[in-house]
Specification:
CATH superfamily of the largest domain in chain A: MetI-like
Distance between the termini of chain B: 17 Å
Shape of chain B: globular
CATH topology of the largest domain in chain A: MetI-like fold
Strand order of the largest sheet of chain A: 1-2
Helix content of chain B: 25-40%
Radius of gyration of chain B: 21 Å
Order of helices and strands of chain B: EEEHEEHEHHHEHEEEHHHHEE
Number of helices of chain B: 10
CATH architecture of the largest domain in chain A: Orthogonal Bundle
Strand content of chain B: 15-25%
Oligomer: heterodimer
Largest sheet of chain A: 2 strands, antiparallel
Largest sheet of chain B: 8 strands, mixed
Chain lengths: ~375, ~350
């Protein structure tokens, strides 16, 4: 008795992937669905015997954990990482949902330099609203963190500032991962001029600090971007400048890993079974890069947030009336001797944000880095 | 049997008998250096090999590490582009074949890899691994593919229940079976087995070897079986080729080569295998080769083995000995030596 395993359309094999018509069917492929199968093959009894004798160890049916699931499980067990991940999520949610609530909470009060204008929370809890009757106000139920030198609510400005940090981090990481993985993979897999270009460009970026590059870009092109794109223009510029300065490092990391992966026998095996380069890159190389990319990207967020704050601190990033943690620290530093809490709040939030991302990154590294498998 | 007279013309088998015809194959890996990265030298991994593999035979290819046997196997499958020479597979020339045509042709020629750990992608389930060739060649719909995968797993002695498991959960022998199932998926005619058992436990080696032997007859396969150890392939091979430093030193029917080795290198290799019989083992005379394998970057002149050969004379340093049938041996038994025999 023979195993029936010859689908009729296996003949379709002949036309797949062929350039030019090949009327003479290669016998081997034809044989897949053809007559040879009748003579070549294994009897049912023989199959049963083999199945019984050879695999006693692993006959339990079921789905095992994928590498990603295993990593997520490790991450889930890391209590410190989970705590800081929760903190990051809370900060993000509060900074985006918070303003919606905050601008609806509070009584109608009198504002303005003369204290005669009636304003609701939609105005005085907006991060750009200047209440000149309440400059450098102390903490109160109206302004829990107080107000700054021109009477803006510090809590609202912090939430807007965290938004900026998150958005810049997101934009930079999209660029970092997009460019870094694409170019790094191609340079690692194909080598050639792309690899040479990557090497030289990375050397350049090593020699020329990324932050300095971003500062120069922000200083020279900032006014242009602002006039063309409005206030978000500077945000985009800073993100692009930071993105340009970080992607070569990601690309170099990815290239190294790709070089290592390329020598693995499963790549050669994939080529042997008729895979194209594209298929090999997409289904063998890129998925195996996932771990190192996710770890590098998470840890990179920390640098990005600090860099954005530094650029804004120098007055080259987000411009007033926009808000950014760096800009707030800069503004508050002018009155630090008199109203020290104004500098404390944004600094503390920046520190918490950076630490939370940093500890989360450590946890992600432990969970995803294959060498720390326990 | 060892005294068959040479018969002119009998050495060249009829063309349709030959599945793989290798002529003058060379694989040189360039070494770049100097100011502008020019090629300063080359590792001559395979340096002029002529070899015919007949349909349905098992050609054992032996030689020590670095002699170019794996490179030869890969060059035959065009996984490495040969520097020179031709490889004709089933009447079609592979070295000049276009990329797409070659990819299609790959269905007929497969490889079983040495390292069962690195030859399976850690992110692929067993089902994914075996599905890859089927997917590349649009085998059929999901149910048909699934049926085929389950069939292949049973063929190699694995339970079809393991489809959704990842390779890291299996032992070396089991992984090697999965790799064999992948190689069988497209019903190939020819399989290059690159030291398929050398990374396995001794107890598992025999199982995998037996499986490969069974599959050969069940699927009418032709093998090129690469090993670094003559005894490993003794009971599987119909013919044996011994490689040394990129050249074939000796080739012939397996029992001929084992019984009546002509090339001193083969004699030395055979003397290194222990006999299973303790009485015979006592009388075994071991030939210890002195010195190291010369560098394939700068191979010795003449016979590449002369630096380590106890029979070497002046002519060995000057002339490369042709690979030819020696007096008193089977016509199909060829050796490249000026002073053949014991």
């Amino acid at each position: 008795m023979k195993i029936e395993e010859t689908p009729d359309n296996f003949q379709a094999l002949d036309t797949v992937g062929a350039v030019g018509n090949q009327p003479s069917t290669p016998e081997g492929i034809a044989a897949l669905g053809g007559t040879e199968q009748q003579t070549a093959g294994v009897t049912q009894a023989e199959l049963d015997r083999r199945a019984e004798t050879e695999t006693r160890e692993a006959t339990t049916e079921g789905q095992s954990l994928s590498p990603l699931q295993a990593s997520m499980r490790r991450l889930g067990r890391d209590r410190r990482a989970m705590f800081f991940m929760a903190l990051v999520l809370i900060l993000i949610v509060v900074s985006y949902v918070g303003p919606l609530v905050w601008t609806r909470v509070g009584p109608t009060i009198l504002t303005g330099a003369a204290g005669l204008d009636k304003s609701g929370p939609a105005s005085y809890h907006n991060y750009v609203f200047e209440d000149l009757s309440r400059q450098n106000a102390n903490s109160s139920s109206l302004h829990p963190f107080g107000t700054d030198a021109i009477g803006r609510d510090i809590l609202a400005r912090i939430m807007a500032g965290v938004n900026v940090s998150i958005e810049v981090a997101l934009l930079v990481e999209i660029m970092d991962i997009g460019l870094g993985v694409t170019i790094g993979t191609l340079a690692g897999y194909y080598g050639g001029w792309l690899a040479t270009f990557l090497d030289r460009f990375t050397d350049l970026m090593f020699a020329f600090p990324g932050l300095l590059f971003a500062i120069l870009a922000a200083a020279t092109l900032g006014p242009v971007f602002q006039s063309r794109l409005g206030l978000p223009g500077r945000l985009i510029l800073v993100s692009m400048a930071l993105g340009i300065s970080v992607w070569p490092f990601m690309a170099r990391l990815v290239r190294g890993q790709t070089l290592q992966l390329r020598e693995q026998q499963f790549i050669e095996a994939s080529r042997t079974v008729g895979s194209s380069n594209r298929h090999i890159i997409m289904s063998h190389i890129v998925p195996n890069l996932f771990n190192i990319v996710i770890v590098a990207a998470t840890l990179d967020v920390v640098n990005t947030i600090v860099s954005e704050a530094v650029i804004s601190l120098l007055g080259l990033g987000v411009q007033t009336p926009g808000s950014s943690l760096g800009l707030m620290i800069n503004d508050a530093a002018a009155v630090i001797a008199v109203y020290p809490w104004e500098v404390v709040w944004p600094t503390a939030v920046l520190a918490i944000l950076v630490l939370a991302f940093s500890f989360m990154g450590d946890g992600v590294q432990d969970a995803f880095n294959p060498r720390t498998k326990d | 049997m060892a005294t068959t007279m040479p018969q002119p013309g009998a050495a060249a088998p009829a063309q349709n008998d030959v599945l793989v015809d290798i002529r003058g194959l060379k694989v040189h890996f360039p070494i770049r250096g100097g100011l502008i990265g020019q090629t300063v030298a080359a590792v001559k991994a395979v340096d002029g090999v002529d070899l015919q593999i007949k349909r349905g035979e098992v050609l054992g290819l032996v030689g020590e590490s670095g002699c170019g046997k794996s490179t030869l196997g890969r060059a035959v499958l065009q996984l490495i582009k040969p520097t020179a020479g031709t490889v004709t597979f089933d009447g079609e020339e592979l070295t000049t074949m276009g990329t797409n045509h070659l990819r299609r042709k790959r269905a007929d020629m497969q490889m079983v890899f040495q390292d069962p750990y690195s030859s399976l992608d850690p992110r692929f389930t067993v089902g994914n691994v075996i599905n890859e060739p089927l997917g590349n060649f649009n085998y059929g719909n999901r149910a048909q593919t699934d049926e085929r995968i389950r069939y292949l797993l049973r063929v190699v002695g694995m339970s079809p229940n393991i489809l959704n498991r990842y390779a890291h959960e299996f032992s070396g022998g089991q992984r090697q079976r999965i790799g064999i199932a992948r190689a069988l998926a497209l019903n190939p005619k020819f399989i290059v087995a690159d030291e398929p058992i050398s990374a396995l436990d001794v107890s598992i080696q025999a199982q995998v070897l037996n499986l490969l032997a069974d599959l050969q007859s069940e699927f009418n396969l032709t093998y090129m079986f690469i090993a670094h150890n003559l005894s490993a392939i003794k009971h599987l091979s119909t013919r044996v080729a011994v490689m040394y430093l990129g050249h074939i030193a000796e080739i012939g029917p397996a029992d001929e080569v084992y019984a009546n080795p002509q090339h001193p290198y083969t004699i030395a290799l055979l003397s290194a295998s222990p006999y299973p019989d303790p009485d015979m083992e006592k009388t075994r005379k071991r030939i210890i080769l002195t010195g190291d394998v010369p560098s394939p970057v700068n191979p010795p002149s003449g016979c590449p083995f002369h630096t380590r050969c106890w029979k070497a004379q002046a002519i060995c340093r000057e002339q490369y000995p042709p690979l030819e049938s020696k007096p008193g041996t089977n016509v199909a038994h060829l050796a490249a030596c000026h002073f053949p025999g014991q």
